[in-house]
Design a protein that fits this description.
42% of the residues lie in helices and 19% in strands. It has 345 residues and is α/β, with parallel strands linked by helices. The radius of gyration is 19 Å and the shape is globular. It has two domains: 18-209, Alpha-Beta Complex (inorganic pyrophosphatase (n-terminal core)); 218-341, Diaminopimelate Epimerase, Chain A, domain 1 (Roll), CATH 3.10.310. Strands 6-7-8-9-11-10 form a six-stranded mixed sheet, with helices on both faces. The protein has a five-stranded parallel sheet with strand order 2-1-3-4-5. It binds manganese (II) ion. Manganese (II) ion binds at residues 40, 97, 122, 143-144, 174. Residues 40, 97, 122, 143-144, 174 line the site of manganese (II) ion.
Length: 345
């Protein structure tokens, strides 16, 4: 099943080689990804790091606002030590798994001011691509990890075993355990296994149910207990709620308990970070998470985007409290969702 619409491929060079040429044009790189880096973003960053090193360059990594809870478990479980940048980051930047500057948080200016900017990603084209010196972007890929794993193999760069296992977890995570696959997904999986990646270990680290921290479980339960319910298109259930953190996890939890559209607000210094998740049933009706995230961004003046199943919006403070902001979103959303499934946009 394909979840993405065909989008024009932006890769600058059909023969490959482009990434290698650009990475070879400088000897020190900052590697970064989107905020709250998920396993695909973290695995992609580590693979980009390994490729730079394999080509003889130096690199260090920064994850704006840290990595997600699942990524933390993977890094700790695999004993991977990330080489973080100390002091001023290098002026040349590789950004992975990120389409929009807003997703870069505090690193936005560093990335926008990069001397050389390389973007490797599988999202629909966003603002970041137009600024890049070189972009390897393939929206038909299920993950960014698979693009970089195949690049590493093409270049003959050695991938350490633990990072190959992390890569398998990255692909498992973004492909929803192979519900969503692209043309290179299985080739990349085989490649990572050839490098010594341990598939069952990756699966085990990702699926540990006891791996949820106490605070993540509390956030999920609070999200459910505070949910405002709406309904559209007869049977599409919409849940809008708020949490202090773990908004993505909370949105997934809402789908698990029966919502078709889950929208979770969390307060941040600069406004509300909104995580959107959509069930496969709703996706089949044309209701996609990126449409909802974009709608919220347009209505309230922010930025938003994502995939069919998962999206993210960054909104300004639209109400005096997060309770009222949640109420506002809960009131407007059913009408919008209803228009989508009756054939509107
Ligand atoms: Mn991804």
């Amino acid at each position: 099943m394909w979840r993405r619409l065909p989008v024009k491929r932006l890769e600058s060079s059909s023969e490959g080689l482009g990434l290698e040429r650009y990475l070879g044009s400088a000897d020190n790189w900052l590697v970064t990804a989107h905020k709250n880096a998920d396993p695909d973003a973290v695995a992609s960053a580590l693979l980009a790091y390994v490729i730079v090193r394999g080509l003889g360059g130096r690199a260090c990594i920064l994850f704006p606002e840290g990595v997600s809870a699942a990524s933390k478990r993977l890094l700790a479980g695999l004993g991977i030590e990330v080489e973080y940048c100390t002091g001023d980051p290098p002026a040349n930047v590789v950004v992975v798994d990120t389409a929009n500057p807003a997703q870069l948080g505090g690193l936005r200016e560093v990335v926008e001011g990069a001397s050389i900017l390389i973007v490797v990603d599988h999202h629909r084209p966003g603002d970041l691509y137009s600024r890049a010196s070189y972009s390897l972007v393939d929206p038909s890929a299920a993950s960014t990890t698979e693009l970089l794993a195949l690049e590493a193999r093409r270049m003959g760069v050695e991938i350490p075993q633990s990072i190959a296992t992390l890569g398998l977890a990255g692909i498992l995570y973004d492909s929803k355990r192979f519900l969503l696959v692209g043309p290179g997904t299985f080739r990349a999986v085989q490649t990572l296994i050839d490098y010594g990646g341990d598939y069952s270990r990756a699966l085990q680290l990702l699926t540990q149910t006891g791996g949820l921290t106490l605070s993540e479980r509390i956030a999920r339960l609070k999200a459910v207990s505070r949910a405002r319910l709406g309904r559209a298109c007869k049977e599409v259930l919409i849940a809008v709620t708020h949490v202090g953190s773990y908004e993505s996890s909370a949105a997934r939890a809402l789908l698990e308990v029966g919502a078709d559209v889950a929208v979770v607000l969390a307060e941040r210094r600069e406004g509300y970070r909104v995580s959107v998740r959509v069930s496969r049933g709703a996706e089949a009706l044309g209701i996609t998470a990126d449409k909802i995230a974009l709608y919220l961004a347009e209505k309230y003046g922010g930025e938003g985007g994502g995939h069919s199943g998962a999206g993210m919006a960054q909104l300004p403070f639209i109400a005096p409290s997060i309770e009222e902001a949640t109420d506002m979103v809960a009131k407007t959303l059913p009408g919008r969702v209803g228009r989508i499934c009756t054939g509107g946009k």
